[in-house]
Amino acid sequence: MPVFKDGIQSAEAIKRLAEAGIIESLTPFAADQIQPASLDLRLGKRAFRVRASFLPGPNRTVRERLADVCLHEIDLTKEAVLETGCVYIAELQESLKLPGNIAAAANPKSSTGRLDVFTRVITDGAREFEDVAAGYDGPLYAEISPRTFPVLVRTGSRLSQLRLRKGQVRLTDKELLALHGKERVVTSEEPSIQDGVAVSVDLSGFGPEKLIGYRGKRHTGLVDVDKPSAYRIADYWEPLYAETGASLILDPGQFYILASKEAVHVPPDYAAEMVPFDPLVGEFRVHYAGFFDPGFGHHAAGGEGARAVLEVRSRDVPFILEHGQVVGRLVYERMAERPHSLYGIDSGSNYQAQGLKLSKHFK
User: Fold this and answer.
1) Which of 49, 60, 104, 220 could hold 71 in an S-S bridge, CB 3.0 to 4.6 Å?
2) Under a CB-based contact definition with an 8 Å cutoff, are residues 230 and 185 in contact?
């Protein structure tokens, strides 16, 4: 068994984990499947339309729970349409045999979140979504629920990503402040650091037209998740522009793409994750896709800081979002080793040096 250092496991370590049988896959990894600090997870051969979302709970498998809630089975070896407002459970090609000192966490891929496809990884015996306990030995599944656009998927489509960690790797506020003093993790001169660094929303507008973001249209055509640059923005999105007062009313049930006020920088020896801000400050959810790889916004990897794109959905009531309002926090974690390839350099990255950017599917 190879020795793995404490920290977030890099692309090179993920390959060693696969070679050691800790990560197993029904088919060989695709050439671009391993990212600097995460592994893309691929849909398997079957999905199941279910009556409701669920967690299996202790001592129960996903397969056992599916017997109670499955409405029908879907063959993913052929193209399959996943409809909005429905919940699906899909088999994943990857499975895990984690040792007792390595745990994992999952998140939607950036492009998945920007399509408003709500995706969460589930394990047998799970008490929580997206969390894979140290020592877990078993299959992985994805819960998939398109919210705004119906999507077309198939075996091999990648909606989620997995990050593996060994030991206590999250930076304390004191350590994060020291890192900011040395590496400048956000463009704020005096960032708010409390359980991570605060990220606020930019409603001042980009460019001469003062574009602040996009609102997803309803009743659109399909989006094939495996086809980049295939769809016209105007067919799926309504542009939003800055108004006097620099605020935006979030309508219940609507999906918005906005951008952070701060430019974000993830140094090469660290990884970051966007976590929700205190829900008591507003009735909205921000950022489905929370992983930021080493090198995001790094000058040596083609970015002088990059805005965090915010996937925003209001809850049950209209809510006024103000320019500069804190909407999330970035927590930073140590890498076990610096990946050979940073985000933005030969890693299939689509969002380096981004400002306000929709998913890769739109042209």
Assistant:
1) 49
2) no
